[in-house]
Amino acid sequence: MKTTIATLLSLTLASGILPAQRPPVPAAQGSSGTIPLGIGGTIIDGQTYYLVNLAPELAFGKLGFGLDLNLRVSTDGKIRKEDFDQGYDYLRMIRYVRWAQKGDPFYIRLGQLDYSRIGHGSIIYNYNNSPSYDLRKVGVALDVNMEKFGAEMLYGDFGGAGVFGLRGYVKPLKFTTFAKLPVVNNMEVGATFAADFHENANRRYLGPGNIIDDGSLSITGLDVGLPIIDYPIFKTALYFDFAAIGGYGSGAMTGITFNFSGLGLVTLSGKYERQFLGDQFIPAYFDALYERDRFIPLDSVAFTSKAMVLENATGSEGYYGEVVLDFLGTISVVGGYSSPVGVRNAGTIHLELITGNVLPVVQISAGYDKRNVGSVFKVDNNSVLNAEVGYKPYPFMIVSIMYQWTFAERIVNDQVVGYDTQKRVEPKVSFVYSF
């Protein structure tokens, strides 16, 4: 097993970078979609519920949306209150609404944000705005891509103050006599502002009666990207990022991206990044585990926070590598790993697997994130896992099982006093209508 893992990591680190973007799914030109009706059960932390689930995914031209409607009833006939205990639960039923696809001239998505990023990912990378099923949030991601300039925007939570990111970029050579130069005329210069406006974003606990609260936490960044090769079958570019966290430290990241689509049915893309990190700086600060890590109560008084980890971070060199393998625009495999150089059990791993509808009888969708990696596949308090495996005995039927390892708030006297791991197992049979 150790040899296999080492081989996979070496392949990851030998690759280059875009921010290894997932290949966009072509937008439907007409109307299409699936409407699955699922019947089964859910086991959440040992409690069993009967389940009726309706989760349609529909597309009308560039407009697409997905819903997630669940009715869970316990074995004693009570509806699970956690599914309906927030004032905006009706919005949680909307998994997403989108216009177009990322990479199009104009793209917007409302709802859950999964593995979201801004720019090369030096500040916001693989950010997930919903730390658990019961803490799902509604956010927005928006891109504007013009020939000479553009912008990316993200906001994590319409229900309250949260993570915000905005990056604007320009291609300066497009405005000069060098506009007709091939490849390098697409050189890109960008600037990013990101912040967390949550009340706990910058709180640190130094001991009983000694709590520092500096309000919101903000990060600014500058980046430059220079294309080197730009052929239809192969593209590669260099980039340099600099970021500074307000009141803390700064760091620089430099890397190379690549995208190879000359294998016919297969596209291979990725990135390799070298990091030069000062004291009190963490790259990709807003990541997959951020919503949980922002503020973790230990009891009714003491707590830990991401800001406390940041305050104690020491300067180092690090690296990040990621590979994305796409087959037929449907099967996608993603693997990424980052770590300080020469430090054991301090890395962060990110894995994804999506098979879509290409395989005849099997569907798999999985995402896994873990920090402080020691034993890679041992899930613990540093892990988030979402996985679903389905078997299609008939085109209109899917027999599936879902497993989630996430986090839920521990509430005492209406106050959050900690987080507990939440394990959710959901076997069901779905009858699917496709058009």
Give structural attributes:
435 residues; mainly beta; Porin; 20-stranded antiparallel barrel; two-stranded antiparallel ribbon; 6% helix; 53% strand; disordered N terminus
Please describe what this structure looks like.
There is one protein chain. With 435 residues, the chain is mainly β. It is built from 4 helices and 26 strands. The chain is globular, with a radius of gyration of 22 Å. A hairpin with a 4-residue loop joins β15 and β16.
- Give the ordered list of helices and strands: HEEEEEHEEEEEEEEEEEEHEEHEEEEEEE
Radius of gyration: 22 Å
Count up the helices. 4
The main β sheet shows up as: 20 strands, antiparallel, barrel
In terms of quaternary structure, the protein is single chain
Q: Beta-strand percentage? A: over 45%
How many distinct folded domains? Answer: 1
CATH topology: Porin
